[in-house]
Amino acid sequence: MSRLPLPGRSRTARAVFAGGLAAALAVLPGGAAHAFTGGNHEDITRAALPWEPVTLTAMADAHDGAINANDRRPYFDVGPLHCDNADYLAPRYSAGYPRTRDEATTELLACIRTSVARFRNAVRAADGLVDADGKVRADQSDLSTPCAWDGKPGRAKCAVLEQLGRGWHQIEDFYSHSNWSDRAAAGPIGLDNPPGLERTDRPPFLDIRRYSAMKDADWTREARGHVPADLTTGCYPDIDSTGVKPADCDGRVAHNRTLNKDTAASPRARAGDDFRRATAGATAELTRQWNDFKAELLAAYPDHGRGAQMVCALVHDDPAAACP
User: Fold this and answer.
1) DSSP letter at 240?
2) Which of 194, 174, 169, 171 shows the shortest CA–CA distance to 184?
3) Which of 32, 139, 267, 315 has most Cβ atoms within 10 angstroms of its Cβ?
4) What's the rounded Cα separation, in Å, for the pair 185 and 173?
């Protein structure tokens, strides 16, 4: 959903939340106008995934889909789950910008890290979709009742969809929240009009499948080297990866009033065709991520065709019948 600025929280509440965030990030494997609106996430996800309708709705629905689970509290308030706060302007655009390039890149890496962790979780959860001989487990792939998206043990298909949805949400958000694909508006480049990179290729630092097989120190070092000098996302007053919540975004590239393309009416979205660029980029990116996840299942579970059966169970609404 789209996010508006939130009221300040108490020092105690902030400390509790920051501690919870640190703990949550620590236990992950491997170490809005805040987001596209739920409807835009749904449109992007439906366009990217060739799944049968019930399963696709479970992932994509604007209100109840796994792709939008990160827009519910407390996840809503966690910057790395939306690729927020990786903001930066070079000195030629803004002398004395309050964040360095390295600090901004570190925050972007925190966002990527959450997707890497969710990818690893989803691969493990997929093991429950089929038995040792490769037969689909009907009880574990059934969607006749809704999934809860609460992180608790349950049906394997729900677990896989939740992990993928929570990992893909911020990848879609990256296109809305950054200047990767967009163009600056007419006029001087600066704090209220950051440069646009106008990129149409897929970001090399979103190679989630490859990174999932690497040590975190190795992939973060590699990814850092791929981040363009002028890449920025927007500052939003949520909790960043250090547990800090900025009181405001004064003097920084702001998410709400400057950079986001969460809706077609957002200021940056009205700069030429920036909204189309953001949604097209996110759609192509999600297609890449799904194809990479399929490839990982085939590679990780080759015996008795288990990986292929897992893919079949994920895309079909009645996999027990469709995946003999």
Assistant:
1) -
2) 194
3) 32
4) 20
Residue 289 CA to its chain's centroid (Å): 11
- Best CA proximity match to 99, nearest among 112, 111, 89: 89
Residues in the chain: 324
Distance CA 2, CA 279 (A): 15
Give Cα separations from 36 to 42, 43, 85, 110, 316 (angstroms).
9, 10, 16, 20, 27
| Helices 38-48/53-60 angle, 10° precision | 140
Read off the pLDDT of residues 141-177 as tens digits, 9 standing for 90 and up.
999 999 999 999 999 999 999 999 999 999 999 999 9
Quick check: helix, strand or coil at residue 82?
A: coil
Bin 154: left if φ > 0, else alpha if -120 < ψ < 50, else beta.
beta
Rounded to a whole number of angstroms, the CA Rg of the chain reads 19
Distance CA 292, CA 282 (A): 15
Q: Which two tokens stand for residue 232?
A: 């920025």
Place of tokens 């700069």: 271
Q: Before 246, cis peptide (omega within 30)?
A: no
Task: Give the predicted TM-score (pTM) of the model.
Answer: 0.89
Residue 212: φ, ψ to 5°: -65, -20
**Strand, helix or coil for residue 248:** coil
Distance CA 244, CA 148 (A): 29
Q: What tokens does 211 get? A: 């990174």
In angstroms, the CA 87 to CA 108 distance is: 9
What digits encode the pLDDT tens for the residues 227-278? 999 999 999 999 999 998 887 899 999 999 999 999 999 999 998 999 999 9
